[in-house]
Amino acid sequence: MEWQQLLGFWQTAKLGSFTKAAVATFRTQSALTQQIKALEEELQCQLFERLGRHIRLTQAGEKLLKFAEETFARYERLKEDLRALQGRHQGRLKMAAPFTTLYHLVPSTIQEYIKRFPYVELTILDRPQRQVVALVQDGDVDLGLVLETVAPKNLTRIRWCPVRTALMVPEGHPLIGAGKVTPGAIARYPLILPPKSLEHLGRERLEEIFRREGLEFRVIMESANVELTALYVEMGLGVGVATLSPDFLPMRHNLVFLPLDHLFRPNHLVVIAKPRQFRNPHQKAFLEMLRQRPGPFQKE
Asked: What family is this protein classified in (predicted)?
């Protein structure tokens, strides 16, 4: 088995196309096909099933894919370890997180990391939570930052910081100082809520409470952006429900945040990655920098 054969197979399996894999590996499609054919002859098994214009891995192909992924991962770790012996921390770190997390919670960590590891190729992707999960599962990023309720249990999940759901109201609002906020009290005001989607389970939970108690409510605005919600709450358009970290409150001075812990379960922002992902020194260092933030940091 040759290295280039294994690489060609891995790209084909990952991209699901001989044509795309040929482009990715800088070789002709016929050359790639011949390499995979030679690999099948050596292993004495079929690796792909051809279904019209599409291909899919056979059971043997699935096993070889796992072997290839582990082999390439070990090779990358070896290169990083050898560079570390020479005092040159190089490699790649690719991460994804939603806008609010990237904007408010990680800039200082990123800034420090770049200073400490100038030779690491860092890539940051601004993506919604579900896309972050998909990128991690597909191996397109090394780590992601999402809410724990969104993170699949088959991924490594490391608790980073707690978050809580709160009602945003402008200063002077009648609900301030009125004690525990009830669903009926919330429903009396125009609401600024996230869009209906699996990204925003808090809205589903709130509407479920309203329906259970027979409450009518009006959504005056939908926004997935906490800062935008805060702006319009401050303007007096309505009241907003948002999931926030204690380390971050929107950059507005005329807002009050009323806790809704009695209506919503506690949650956490978590670091997610494939199992056994954090092996390279520069990856471990990034995790350690995040670990230094206030709040619990626990691996599941």
From this structure: Belongs to the LysR transcriptional regulatory family.
For the whole prediction, is pTM greater than 0.70?
no
The CA distance from 131 to 224, in Å, is: 15
The predicted-structure confidence for 66-107, as pLDDT tens digits, reads as follows 999 889 888 877 877 776 666 665 678 999 999 888 988 888
Both structure tokens of 197: 């989607």
Q: Give the number of other CB atoms < 10 A from CB of residue 116.
A: 12
* Number of domains forming the structure of the chain: 2
Amino acid (1-letter code) at residue 213: E
Q: Hey, what are 192's tokens?
A: 């600024």
Pairwise CA distance, residues 300 & 293, whole Å: 18
Report the C-alpha gap between 182 and 162 in whole angstroms. Answer: 23
Q: What is the CATH number of the domain that holds 182?
A: 3.40.190.10
Q: What CATH number is attached to the domain comprising 31?
A: 1.10.10.10
The rounded Cα 209 to chain-centroid distance in angstroms is 28
pLDDT digit string, tens, across residues 235-291: 999 999 988 887 666 555 688 999 999 999 888 999 999 887 777 778 888 988 988
Strands 143-147 and 239-244: unpaired
Nearest Cα to Cα of residue 56 among 46, 66, 44, 70: 46
